[in-house]
């Protein structure tokens, strides 16, 4: 009889433990990280674009927190994505292999080990392709389901890519996959990397989206930043700037509508209150401007490139540049259950390598005790008030350019020459203060030269 009673007690305890585990799992938030491709800091209404229409992204912004001092840790696609996944500056290892180390922690592995169902839909670009053709597939990184481009995993076929408007239809496919994944896993926490194609070249919008902007006429003075105005003036010599801007706005509108469809689906599934939605972009807008002669030839061979007229806001530099326009990115984070709505954080400096430690802390995911990363847990800033970072923010994705942001100071070691800017008062990085502030300049030059020595021990040929 004692054995029978003891067995009943054990069974009750097991049942109770299962119930507690179930409740805990249901209370954990879902997470969807939406990453645009080459979308400029100033390309949404909420970030000051005079022409784009982004009602769904603006609604997302109003439901949570907008960061105006958010960055990616690199100025082009592949290394910026590696930093997001690993919390490690890409110049340390990634640029030697163009493949994230499968033996080291990644945000997807951490969440998967913490009980999350994980998916990656969209561009991968952190292993696979010409630079690393034998890279592991996404499934090697704790990802349960994936459908990707530029990876060794499942994705679109060659025949798919020949279809009309293939590029534009990828977003619909990825959103469909994300909605389906959420439906099938809504009773347990899930994480989705939703890394979309827009606004990467070559932009060829669907007719119904072009129709929305057919009457748009560009007044270059409508744009706040001098560098952006200069860029559009340059582009107007090589294209009908009205048609190019119409195409770009149409591409952004298509992206916004598809994100709106996802948000509506989450609400119908009653998942909207306890789902963290993060929106950002992997780097500044194209095209890369480091070789004007080559660019002008590409306008002829790739005529749709003239539609890449994204906005860097009030900054200078574009994709491929360590100036603000190349690395400053929109960061929108919504979590209705815990983040107050309608807040704009203009002080917190948030970077790509912070993504892993910040998100892990927000959802209580356990990270390895011996984890060594460059990123910093900025969850206090996300969930509460502004929060000063304790680490300097470094940026480098090529062997000849190293940059540091430290409070109001930003310094570049570019082509072996130091430049210093007060980024708070000089957002356009127009006034080099090296001569006026020699001690500060020497301080950061020393730091950056050490960074160069440490980071690029194995220099890769980056094109």
Automatic annotation (TrEMBL):
Domain of life per record: Bacteria
Keywords, sorted A to Z: Signal
Signal peptide span: 1-25
Chain ranges of the Sulfatase N-terminal domain: 29-364
Pfam families the record matches: Sulfatase
InterPro entries registered for this protein in UniProt: Alkaline_phosphatase_core_sf (IPR017850), Sulfatase (IPR050738), Sulfatase_N (IPR000917)
Family statement drawn from the similarity comment of this UniProt entry: Belongs to the sulfatase family.
Protein name per its UniProtKB record: Sulfatase-like hydrolase/transferase
Organism: Flammeovirga kamogawensis
Lineage, opening ranks: Bacteria, Pseudomonadati, Bacteroidota, Cytophagia, Cytophagales
């Amino acid at each position: 009889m004692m054995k029978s009673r003891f067995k009943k007690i054990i069974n009750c305890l097991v049942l109770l433990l299962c119930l507690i585990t179930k409740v805990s799992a249901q209370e954990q938030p879902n997470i969807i990280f939406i990453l645009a491709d080459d979308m400029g800091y100033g390309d949404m209404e909420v970030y000051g674009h005079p022409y784009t229409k982004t009602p769904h992204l603006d609604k997302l912004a109003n439901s949570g927190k907008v960061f105006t001092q958010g960055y990616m840790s690199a100025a082009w696609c592949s290394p910026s994505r590696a930093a997001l996944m690993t919390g490690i500056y890409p110049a340390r290892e990634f640029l030697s292999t163009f493949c994230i180390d499968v033996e080291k922690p990644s945000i997807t592995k951490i969440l998967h080990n913490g009980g999350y169902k994980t998916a990656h839909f969209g561009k991968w670009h952190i292993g696979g392709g010409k630079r690393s053709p034998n890279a592991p597939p996404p499934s090697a990184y704790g990802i349960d389901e994936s459908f990707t481009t530029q990876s060794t995993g499942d994705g679109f076929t060659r025949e798919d890519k020949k279809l009309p408007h293939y590029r534009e239809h990828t977003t619909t496919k990825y959103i469909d996959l994300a909605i389906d994944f959420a439906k099938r896993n809504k009773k347990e926490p899930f994480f989705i990397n939703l890394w979309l194609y827009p606004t990467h070249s070559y932009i060829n919008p669907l007719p119904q989206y072009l129709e929305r902007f057919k009457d748009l006429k560009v007044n270059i003075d409508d744009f706040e930043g001098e560098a952006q105005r200069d860029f559009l003036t340059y582009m107007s010599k090589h294209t009908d700037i009205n048609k190019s801007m119409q195409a770009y706005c149409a591409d952004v509108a298509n992206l916004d509508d598809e994100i709106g469809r996802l948000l509506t689906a989450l609400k119908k599934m009653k998942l909207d209150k306890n789902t963290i939605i993060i929106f950002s972009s992997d780097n500044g807008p194209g095209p890369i401007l480091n070789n004007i002669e080559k660019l002008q030839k590409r306008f002829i061979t790739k005529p749709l490139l003239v539609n890449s007229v994204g906005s860097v806001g009030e900054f200078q530099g574009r994709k491929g540049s360590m100036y603000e326009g190349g690395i400053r990115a929109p960061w929108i984070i919504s979590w209705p259950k815990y983040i107050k709505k309608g807040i704009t954080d203009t002080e917190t400096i948030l970077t790509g390598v912070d993504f892993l430690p910040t998100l892990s802390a927000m959802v209580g995911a356990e990270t390895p005790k011996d984890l060594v990363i460059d990123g910093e847990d900025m969850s206090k800033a996300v969930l509460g008030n502004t929060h000063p970072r304790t680490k300097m923010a470094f940026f480098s994705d090529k062997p000849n350019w190293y940059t540091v942001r430290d409070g109001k100071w930003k310094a570049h070691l570019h082509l072996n020459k130091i430049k210093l800017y007060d980024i708070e008062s000089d957002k356009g990085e127009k006034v080099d203060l090296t001569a006026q502030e020699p001690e500060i300049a020497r301080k950061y030059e020393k730091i950056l030269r050490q960074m160069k020595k440490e980071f690029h021990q194995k220099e890769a040929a980056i094109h």
